[in-house]
């Protein structure tokens, strides 16, 4: 059923031993992820990005509410789940089995990250030997940004996992009648995991259309009508599924698109070019080395020179085919991903380029394998991977030498204890942008987070819900403090600061917990 990689060389491991080593490594990553699951949020601490990662709460809010209170959304609440319905459904299922907790939410990303590594192994094996592929997977797993973001309850690990599963189905499944619908299904799940992963679905469509329609036409061969039918039938099912989702939750989707209207794509060519260059510049950030990008660039130059020197179209086709189905699929995926982040003008945050970490490392090794003579190929690949690890060591050293890697976790636990001790109610409404994150630590709390709403909207929520607590994170550079914001609401008689937590000593970020006192 699966396409067999190239024949094993004499110096390669047996398939069984490779399976044992890969399985043991995956289990070790799973255990390590579980044991370190409560370490400070990777985005904001581990990746030194100067922002607490409250997105964990935003994405899980609807799943929490459904399990805790039997409702996906509440009045005056801005939900983020329409941007990641796949993640929300998985979280709700696991919350119902194991209870609402940050551990459960984060373990989803840990498992998805491990599956992504297994997909890279399956994809890379079509071009590389067993030993080199195993080393590649181990080095990729130790990439700092990959390790950091793979422990956070956000949508990117799930979306990336589904994307790589789609590419693996395309590359490795021999039976195309299975490969076509499965690859498109996983690509659609990637889009449902995070909307801008539409580029993953477009990638799969491009590679299938090239293989099933365009190349047969060029070669004057008969087109397999059954395969064409499967592509369009799968697309029809995807369109109908998305339409049904939009119709069923139209209000939630409309609200989500409204609060994210600043992320609409730009069609200005000059803006797109400028932002694409910025996207390229972000690639090495805590994830890849410049060496990897140089390897890909050298291969591109090598391929262009060979292509222009081709004496015939068949020779040109042969040069193209050397990159392989896996290489082309990953290349298109990476290029379209960068174009998408450029068009959407997404903020300069590491997780928006999480999808690129594994493909860039894999493609850099592919580049050496394609352009370097066979006698020295393995030495150059090992040299690249060692250099990559050395580049990552500085980030691990900085992270592991933090005096308290549980600073945010301990602050959250203390805040929950304070809130629950001051309330006898079974349902405790808490308002503030950080409340979504905090609710993952309590079975009684409901978050009424106030991100992306006006000052009047905050007062409107306070009047409707009359929550007893307000919790938010603040930065020294903010112009308006949360106290000033609360003071604008005449419904409040007073707001008492219960606690202030330093959660990122490097930039002096704080989380402040207020008790609200309402006017009679």
Percent of sequence in beta strands? 5-15%
With helices defined by DSSP (H or I, 4 residues minimum), what is the helix count?
22
Which structural class best describes the helix and strand composition?
alpha/beta
Query: What is the CA-CA span between the terminal residues?
Result: 72 Å
For the sheet with most strands, the description reads:
5 strands, mixed
Strand order of the largest sheet: 2-1-3-5-4
Which outline best applies?
Answer: globular
Radius of gyration: 25 Å
Kindly report the average pLDDT value.
83
Helix coverage percent: 55-70%
- Total strands: 5
Q: Strand-and-helix sequence, N→C?
A: HHHHHHHHHHHHHHHHHHHEHEHEHEE
pLDDT < 50 runs, ≥5 residues: none
Give a verbal description of the structure.
Helix 1 (15-35) runs antiparallel to helix 5 (102-124), helix 5 packs parallel to helix 17 and helix 9 packs antiparallel against helix 10 (198-218). The protein is 63% helix and 7% strand. The chain is globular, with a radius of gyration of 25 Å. The chain has a 5-stranded mixed β-sheet, sandwiched between helices. It is of the alpha/beta class and 520 residues long.
């Amino acid at each position: 059923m699966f396409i067999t990689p190239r024949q094993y060389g004499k110096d390669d491991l047996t398939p069984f031993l490779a399976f044992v080593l890969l399985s043991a490594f995956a289990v070790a990553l799973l255990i390590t992820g579980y044991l370190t699951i409560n370490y400070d949020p990777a985005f904001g601490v581990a990746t030194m990005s100067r922002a607490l990662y409250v997105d964990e709460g935003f994405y899980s809010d609807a799943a929490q509410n459904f399990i805790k209170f039997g409702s996906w959304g509440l009045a005056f609440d801005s939900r983020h789940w329409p941007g990641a319905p796949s993640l929300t459904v998985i979280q709700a299922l696991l919350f119902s089995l194991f209870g609402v907790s940050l551990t459960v939410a984060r373990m989803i990303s840990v498992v998805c990250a491990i599956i992504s590594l297994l997909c890279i192994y399956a994809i890379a094996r079509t071009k590389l030997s067993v030993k080199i592929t195993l080393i590649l997977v181990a080095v990729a797993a130790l990439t700092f940004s990959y390790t950091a973001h793979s422990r956070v309850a956000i949508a990117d690990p799930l979306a990336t996992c589904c994307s790589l599963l789609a590419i693996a189905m395309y590359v490795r499944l021999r039976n195309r009648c299975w490969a076509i619908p499965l690859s498109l299904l996983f690509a659609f799940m990637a889009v449902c995991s995070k909307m801008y992963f539409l580029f993953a679905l477009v990638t799969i469509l491009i590679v299938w259309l090239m293989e099933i329609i365009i190349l047969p036409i060029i070669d004057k061969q008969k087109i397999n009508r059954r395969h064409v039918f499967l592509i369009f039938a799968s697309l029809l099912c995807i369109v109908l599924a998305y339409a049904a989702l939009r119709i069923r939750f139209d209000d939630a989707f409309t609200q989500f698109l409204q609060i994210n209207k600043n992320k609409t794509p730009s069609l200005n060519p000059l803006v797109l070019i400028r932002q694409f260059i910025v996207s390229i510049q972000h690639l090495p950030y805590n994830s890849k080395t410049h060496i990897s990008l140089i390897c890909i660039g050298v291969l591109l130059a090598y391929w262009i020179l060979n292509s222009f020197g081709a004496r015939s179209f068949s020779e040109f086709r042969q040069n193209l085919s050397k990159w392989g189905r896996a290489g082309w699929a990953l290349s298109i995926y990476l290029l379209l991903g960068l174009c998408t982040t450029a068009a959407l003008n997404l903020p300069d945050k590491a997780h928006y380029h999480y999808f690129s970490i594994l493909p860039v490392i894999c493609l850099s090794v592919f580049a050496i394998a394609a352009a370097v003579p066979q006698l020295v190929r393995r030495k150059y690949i090992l040299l690249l991977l060692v250099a990559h690890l050395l580049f990552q060591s500085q980030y691990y050293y900085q992270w592991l030498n933090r005096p308290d890697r549980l600073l945010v976790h301990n602050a959250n636990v203390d805040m929950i204890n304070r809130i629950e001790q001051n309330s006898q109610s079974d349902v405790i409404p808490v308002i503030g942008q950080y409340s979504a994150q905090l609710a993952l630590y309590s079975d009684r709390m409901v978050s009424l987070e106030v991100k992306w709403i006006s000052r009047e909207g905050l007062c409107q929520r306070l009047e409707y819900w009359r929550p007893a607590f307000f919790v938010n994170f603040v930065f020294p550079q903010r112009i308006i403090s949360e106290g000033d914001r609360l003071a604008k609401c005449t419904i409040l008689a007073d707001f008492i600061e219960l606690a202030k937590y330093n959660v990122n000593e490097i930039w002096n970020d704080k989380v402040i917990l207020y008790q609200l006192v309402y006017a009679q």
